[in-house]
From TrEMBL:
Region feature A, mapped onto this chain: 1-341
Homology family: Belongs to the heat shock protein 90 family.
Subunit structure: Homodimer.
Chain's role: Molecular chaperone. Has ATPase activity.
The name this protein goes by in its record: Chaperone protein HtpG
PANTHER family in alphabetical order: HEAT SHOCK PROTEIN 90 FAMILY MEMBER (PTHR11528)
Residue intervals of the Histidine kinase/HSP90-like ATPase domain: 24-177
Pfam family, one: HATPase_c_3
Organism: Halalkalibacter alkalisediminis
Gene: htpG
Amino acid sequence: MTKKQFKAESKRLLEMMINSIYTQKEIFLRELISNASDAIDKMYYKALTDETITFDKDGYYIKVVADKEKRSLTITDTGIGMTKEDLETNLGTIAKSGSLAFKTENELKDGHDIIGQFGVGFYSAFMVADEVTVTSKAVSTDEAFKWKSDGADGYTIEPAEKESYGTEIVLKVKENTEEENYDEYLDDYRLKAIIKKYSDFIRYPIKMELTERKLKEGSDNEGEESKEVQTINSMVPIWRKNKNELTLEDYENFYKEKHYGFDKPLKHIHISVDGAVRYNAILYIPENIPFDFYTKEYEKGLELYSNGVLIMNKCADLLPDHFSFVKGMVDSEDLSLNISREILQHDRQLKLIAKNIKSKIKSQLLNLLKDEREKYEQFYQSFGRQLKYGVYTDFGSNKEALQDLLMFYSSTEKKMVTLDEYVSRMADDQKYIYYASGESNERIEKLPQMELVSDKGFEVLYFTEDIDEFAIKMVATYKEKEFKSVSSGDLGLDEDQESKVESEENDHKELFAAMKKVLEDKVKNVRVSKRLKTHPVCLATDGEVTIEMEKILQAMPDNQNIKADKVLELNTNHEVFQSLKKAFETDQEKLNLYTKLLYNQALLIEGLPLQDPVDFTNDMCKIMV
Ligand SMILES: Nc1ncnc2c1ncn2[C@@H]1O[C@H](COP(=O)(O)OP(=O)(O)OP(=O)(O)O)[C@@H](O)[C@H]1O
């Protein structure tokens, strides 16, 4: 028997592929099982047009058998089989895909599709085997043939004995090396796990003979081992089932089975789209934050299946960052796979699916907000931060899509509210959407800056997370209403007050100038406050950067020392102001002392650090004696 050489380019390709296309050796089994499943599919098509063949679904299966002693792994199918010519052309020339030819020759009906397109999958067997033997008998023929290759030099083909139609592939599994443990591909439980992982939803049963330990009959402690043929794959994927056939429990079980999380999902989204792009998806919003969610280690992404076969564990392109908490899977028949079947080309279909999924998730979240408020708030507590990041990043390009999902605590409602709810409650004379930033709701409530706005009966949103103000700056306006910090220079309150403040400002011009001199460049200005009622003093800001933003920016590793333009505001109706006036007229030293004290108090109220706490306590003592 003469050995035939692989076609020249094939040889190179083979080496290249073995070493580089596949990142994980275990996928060889997925490839061989996909081929076997394709072969059974082909039988199905043939039966549609050929009366001599009957397609009896029960007679079709794939079997995987490992033999540790012989170091052999056998994959058998009862599919269409290959003639001598088929073996020659399909396995003798790499990158010549029989499946692709079959696909173009036969219009595919009935939603069945054949995954093989490139004609390299088979060769992945050489990643784990020294030698591969394929014995095959094509349907409607009497002869069987054996194709054999050690992968390097070429292959032989000879007549063989085989009773039934179909193909048997025997891999002689490589010996272990220092880097690689090949024994695992002879271990039934490891093989079972690989099948479960990649081929669980292959339409035909994948059988294995597994050793089970059972109690010996009649004994309650003596065990015995017995071999049992088991079907490993679940075959009908849950996502292909009709939604009304499925119960909540089914979805929860799938979530657990797939190890999407240890919690129960808060909500599931089952999508079946049959339009410009066809796909099925089951998505979940987890109940709890995954432990690594807010770390760099967290990887977003959905499992991606191509026609029931797992292609990618975490396809990041399917989820925008702001929905990175979503878990689940997508299955589509329309994906154009690249050669390794692992990475997709920048596929138009994939983009369409991703876009579709994005809008589905959004609309489901809006439904949750509308219909199951408590659940939504639970969701928001876990992942609201991620939505706010979504608003802020990419120069606000997602703000329109996300702003309706935002919630903040309301000063008047005493609960979380949406921007839409806030705006719908705004009085006619209210120009702005007010917000206040601070460490906690309790601290914000006590901020002197809150006094006047609250007194006017205006609702204030509390920003307690560092991202809040940055996100809202990006939103800028909601339903044509601008956002305004209660600490910002102009609060847009009534005009009578404006002119009163203006004249007071004039009256105390010299006093403020003297105070500004004491404080030097610690503040940009000293002025009359429009927002204080009972408190003597507060800090306000002019310009874009607020004090809370300054705190966050300063905490960043490579901060550029960005500071808020701080303004010391005084309550001219407070008794302390009278003391200030007196000191200004009579005692410069006292004015210095009072000014420093008031400034430091304002810092403390804002939760800002005192530059010199000892100096501050000394000043306190001075006014006591
Ligand atoms: N078990 C099998 N039964 C029948 N034909 C087979 C079997 N395995 C492989 N073939 C034939 O050999 C061809 C080459 O297989 P190979 O896995 O290399 O490529 P493919 O399945 O066409 O594409 P892919 O690279 O996507 O796997 C197949 O297209 C098919 O025609």
